[in-house]
């Protein structure tokens, strides 16, 4: 899994550099503008490197969002609205980040917990709730 | 484990927070009873509505709901607020949260209603508090005004890493956040393609922090992005009048001058940036080359 991720990053890096080279003569005016985000990043010498890394993470995060069932166009729009720092923060984390659902889920969850607790106590012979637990 | 759930925030409040009124309730906050799994869209619709953009949870769900997670992720709420031209600024701690409520700003919060090892993540909108009864009021789930003790809220909020957000019209600033936090929120509007609103936000930052280099440059960049080249040039010149040694401002001025065809002036500005150097020295050299000057 890690190896695959490394490989994909490698491929993405080659693509990114290719795209950068191809797009050089185009978009002249803005290629040399320092964005507000870059200014705020208070970068040392590593500013440019961080930008390239975030560029790679953007593609990866977009893929992950699509894999989680979001329409590809919408996924692209979501990623576009995030800063480099945010993208770097969530890359590879979308499966673990807290996802807000509902207050009702807590009740269902509570029932599940009670079920599990009773199951354990049943297995320990402290309770006798479930017929499928053997008590001998 | 239990010690980890203590609420030093609330203890700090009891010590008395100067300037914080005993109680406050934000007016004009709509109520969107959440539908199944839609606490994220409902909470966002609530704060967007308060900020003057009526929204419906079903309509905005596509922007924030992630089917594969069966819920909403925090960064998508920030992104969606920006895409609607609203400034989304994080709120740091409980005293700040109450101060925002006192300033009339509802606060979107993430809570873990369950336990650390059995999390139940939930988005809600804090709308009021009362220190004398130690209570907080929220638009939460299907309840228009859920009242919980500040201690309980403090615990459920701490278990969610104190994630909280104010979502404001671009001309309005949060009551508590510092300059850097507000600036990156404004830059987020540029990122989301809402440069017009970003320019408005930078103007607001400059009213509170008149010398802010980030806001002076951001205003230029935002005007540039909407094609207002003369306005961008003026903004960069204003930045330089206050910060003559800001290489970034020289660089971006060079860029906008070149875009307007003022090549000679652009060259002078570009050389100043290259001479000053700094974190973005590579970009400054590129600017100079593109305008046609000799590489430094």
Instruction: Quote the distance from N terminus to C terminus of chain A.
Output: 46 Å
Number of helices of chain A: 7
How many individual helices of chain B? 13
Query: How helical, in percent, are the residues of chain A?
Result: 55-70%
Taking Cα atoms only, what radius of gyration of chain B do you get, to the nearest Å?
A: 23 Å
Instruction: Classify the fold: give the CATH topology of the largest domain in chain B.
Output: Cathepsin B, Chain A
| Binned strand content of chain A | under 5%
User: How would you classify the quaternary structure?
Assistant: heterodimer
Coarse structural class of chain A: mainly alpha
What's the story with the biggest beta sheet of chain B?
Answer: 7 strands, antiparallel
Shape of chain A: elongated
| Net shape of chain B | elongated
Our Rg estimate of chain A from Cα atoms comes to 24 Å
Order of helices and strands of chain B: HEHHEEHEHEEEEHEHHHHHHH
N→C terminal distance of chain B: 60 Å
Strand tally of chain A: 1
Mean pLDDT of chain A, to the nearest integer, reads 76
Task: Estimate the strand proportion of chain B.
Answer: 15-25%
Number of domains of chain A: 2
Which residue ranges of chain A are poorly predicted, with pLDDT under 50 across at least 5 consecutive positions? 20-29
Number of separate domains of chain B? 2
């Amino acid at each position: 899994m890690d190896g695959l991720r490394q490989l994909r990053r490698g491929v993405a890096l080659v693509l990114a550099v290719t795209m950068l080279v191809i797009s050089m003569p185009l978009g002249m005016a803005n290629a040399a503008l320092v964005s507000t985000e870059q200014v705020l990043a208070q970068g040392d010498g590593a500013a440019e490197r961080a930008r390239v890394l975030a560029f790679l993470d953007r593609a990866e995060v977009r893929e992950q969002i699509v894999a989680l069932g979001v329409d590809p166009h919408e996924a692209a729009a979501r990623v576009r609205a995030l800063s480099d720092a945010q993208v770097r923060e969530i890359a590879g984390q979308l499966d673990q980040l807290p996802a807000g659902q509902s207050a009702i889920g807590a009740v269902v969850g509570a029932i599940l917990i009670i079920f599990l607790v009773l199951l354990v106590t049943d297995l320990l012979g402290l309770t006798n709730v479930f017929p499928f637990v053997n008590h001998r | 484990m239990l010690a980890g759930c203590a609420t030093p925030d609330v203890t700090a409040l009891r010590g008395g927070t100067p300037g914080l009124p005993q109680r406050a309730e934000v007016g004009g906050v709509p109520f969107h009873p959440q539908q199944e799994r839609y606490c994220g869209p409902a909470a966002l619709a609530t704060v967007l509505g308060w900020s003057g953009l009526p929204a419906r949870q079903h309509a905005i769900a596509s922007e924030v709901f992630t089917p594969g997670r069966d819920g909403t992720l925090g960064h998508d709420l920030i992104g969606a607020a920006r895409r609607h031209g609203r400034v989304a600024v994080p709120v740091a701690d409980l005293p700040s949260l109450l101060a925002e409520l006192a300033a009339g700003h509802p606060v979107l919060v993430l809570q873990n209603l369950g336990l650390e090892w059995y999390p139940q993540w939930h988005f809600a909108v804090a709308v009021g508090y009362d220190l004398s009864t130690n209570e907080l009021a929220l638009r939460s789930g299907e309840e228009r005004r859920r009242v919980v003790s500040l201690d309980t809220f403090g615990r459920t909020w701490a278990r969610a890493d104190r994630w909280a957000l104010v979502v404001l019209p671009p001309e309005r600033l949060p009551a508590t956040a510092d300059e850097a936090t507000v600036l990156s929120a404004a830059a987020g509007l540029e990122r989301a393609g809402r440069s017009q609103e970003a320019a408005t936000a930078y103007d607001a930052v400059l009213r509170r922090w008149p010398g802010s280099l980030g806001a002076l440059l951001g205003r230029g960049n935002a005007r540039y992005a909407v094609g207002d080249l003369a306005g961008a040039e003026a903004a960069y010149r204003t930045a330089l009048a206050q910060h003559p040694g800001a290489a970034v401002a020289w660089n971006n001025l060079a860029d906008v001058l070149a875009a307007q065809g003022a090549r000679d002036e652009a060259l002078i500005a570009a050389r100043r940036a290259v001479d000053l150097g700094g974190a973005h020295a590579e970009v400054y050299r590129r600017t100079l080359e593109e305008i046609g000057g000799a590489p430094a």
